[in-house]
Amino acid sequence: MKIQLASSYGFCFGVKRAIEIAEEHKGSVTYGPLIHNKDEINRLKVGFDIGLAENLNDIQTDDAVVIRTHGIPKNELEVLNTQDHKVIDATCPYVTTPQNIVEKMSDDGYSIVIFGDASHPEIKGVVSYAKYQDDAFIVLEPEELDDLPLRGKVAVVSQTTKKPEDFAKIVAALMLTRKEIRVFNTICNATFENQDAAAELAKDADVMVVIGGKHSSNTKQLHSICQRDCANSYLIENETELDASWFDGKTFCGISAGASTPDWIVQNVIDSIQEMKQ
Amino acid sequence: MKIQLASSYGFCFGVKRAIEIAEEHKGSVTYGPLIHNKDEINRLKVGFDIGLAENLNDIQTDDAVVIRTHGIPKNELEVLNTQDHKVIDATCPYVTTPQNIVEKMSDDGYSIVIFGDASHPEIKGVVSYAKYQDDAFIVLEPEELDDLPLRGKVAVVSQTTKKPEDFAKIVAALMLTRKEIRVFNTICNATFENQDAAAELAKDADVMVVIGGKHSSNTKQLHSICQRDCANSYLIENETELDASWFDGKTFCGISAGASTPDWIVQNVIDSIQEMKQ
Questions:
Q1: Which terminus in chain A has less CB density within 10 A, N or C?
Q2: CB neighbours of residue B23 within 10 Å
Q3: For residue B164, which residues of chain A lie inside 8 Å, CB to CB?
């Protein structure tokens, strides 16, 4: 049986980069989990002595602190710097961009609109860079714009993981009532690249295995995309969940993985499938 | 019978202003017709000795030249200034705005996209203000954007008379492929104000009279909007076309007028209806 990986799968550029940065700083602590995958966090702990601090207060005086891909609010960064920690910034460059845009545009007199989830760490960080916090607004739906005390000049950015079509709806609503809007398309394609590659592969494969957290919306979406074109699509967290009967009579197995699935788990799955078919 | 004018009708702010400017400059010539209404152009000729030059070459050395609301291309303005004409600028301020935006944004390194009709005098003027003519593009449909060699930074303006919903489609298409777009909503509400006011009045009136050119798309649209709510809606060019039978048994006559219809024609129509009903 042919086994083929999707042309894009698993960790995005920013997460790969953050893990490499952490590995280069043995003994550091990450402020918040570097990735939503316990096995990978455990690997970093065992192999590189990387600790985890869920709160600012949990960070010890002599800790070197890794900032994760989502970034953190500006005032928290200032606290860390004041406390003389060694700060290792692994904020994804695709997140630094909207942080910088919000800071500059707010300073230039634009009202700020951020399309995203107010509770998401990335957005908490991005909005914190507005110079005028009472002139920066986070919205998820166009209707939320109606009651905002926006100026005639508005700058708008998006959470990196949002859908472009939904961002376009926010922009369409804004542009009809404002004299000038500056639209910065800060959406990152990584999520969609994995989805497009999985869909492409599912057309040819007669069995698809998607690897990732059962509760990860990202992984579940990959799975449902594969199911559209390949009825025999399975979602597993690791190789222990494989069932040899899935591959009976099959000739082409496609593999994809969610954005929080490390490569070594993907490789374990591929090895196990190959053993089953020997 | 009650006769009521729509709360907004006829000339827009820019045209009213241009006619006042022309009246203040007796003996001048307008470069292009000031308005698409022969009766009004004749009134200006007879009452104020305002001439009409259709082409640059038709303008005599000693003519004072009125620039109409649409504006003119920058190079033509330079020619007029070089020839030492007295130039009287009646360009609508709502048109000067996109001219200035295009000039500044082009100078600041943005590709320029103009949503409008390439053959419309307003757009010929607006596009001429781009510093880099090979980096300024006029489009009517989102699909036309696909093949344009646009930079990552794009500034976009609209012809003043376009529909906001259609402009939004251009913006939506642009924002999905560009890093930054600056959207300047340069649409003027005047057309829509006349339409909204006519629709409002047509709900209450049992007969509607719309005054304007039979070939004016603006006037025809007003007429069809009125017909939606008032079956007895009539389109006339002036009072000679009125028919007394239209008002038999009617109690409330609403009046609207296209954007090229001068107030004095509207008043003639009202006077004639009142005479018919005496």
A1: C
A2: 14
A3: 175-176
Mutate which of A183, A184, A187, A189 to disrupt the B interface (most B C-beta within 10 Å)?
A183
pLDDT tens for B141-161 read 999 999 999 999 999 999 999
Of B230, B233, B244, B235, the C-alpha closest to B273 is: B244
Of A188, A192, A178, residue with least CA distance to B168: A178
- What ipTM was assigned to the predicted interfaces of this complex? 0.76
Identify which of B168, B177, B181 has the shortest CB distance to residue A172.
Answer: B168
Contact call for residues B87 and B93 (beta carbons, < 8 A): no
Is B185 within 8 Å of B167 (Cβ atoms)? yes
Options B122, B193, B200, B239, the catalytic residue: B122
Structural contact between residues A5 and A255, judged by C-beta atoms closer than 8 angstroms:
yes
What domains can be seen in chain A, in order of their start residue? 2-8+190-276 (3.40.1010.20), 13-91 (3.40.50.11270), 94-183 (3.40.1010.20)
B241: its two tokens? 């076309």
pLDDT in tens, B105-134: 999 999 999 999 999 999 999 999 999 999
A7 marked as part of a ligand binding site: no
**Measured between alpha carbons, how far is A120 from A238 in angstroms, rounded to an integer?**
27
Distance of CA A12 to the CA centre of its chain: 7
What span, in angstroms and rounded, lies between the C-alpha atoms of A226 and A209? 9
